[in-house]
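How it folds
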Amino acid sequence: MAGGRRGPGALAEPRRLMRSGLGLIVLGHGSLVLGAIVHGAVLRHVAGARRAVTPEYAAANVVSVCSGLLSIAVGIVAILVSHNLSRPALHWTLLSTSLLNCLLSTACSVGLALAIALTVHGRGTHLVRGCNSSALPADARTAIATNDCPFNTTRIYDTALALWFPSLLLAVAEAVLSGRCCLVALVFRGIGPCAHSYDKEQV
């Protein structure tokens, strides 16, 4: 196949599908690592006495970790499909998992964007809610004069944003690659206009 060809035929090339699968595996591991860092560096500090976590962290950590795990699964299935193009069961598995991961990664991207917007708008006040001090500042980057806070409030805000931005980029990339895998599965199963164009190219 020509390297510069565009269309369903190029999209369904086994080599490109394998690259998409490898990319999803790498992105999924990246999301897992960032999720673990968020939990260790931020999440365990901002949990209050009742262990209540703010909605921003629920969206940033739990959903991104689930998306990372599913991205790894989709990547593995995509690699298997690239080496077994005549297996209908693998086609349906790729279609279902990639569609689910595309939706989950999109929801994760929206959640992370909302978390970043709310945190910047509120100047990080929700991030220091777990602090027991009565002298909470209006800005999370402002130092608290008392020692009632069990964590350093001046670093929580910057750390959270520094971890959320790359997580957002990874989630967007996962959604794009999962969408491509979903289109490839539809092409292989003969569903949609792209599949008809692919059949014509094959003929």
In short: Confidence is low (pLDDT under 50) at residues 143-147, 195-203. The chain has six helices and no strands.
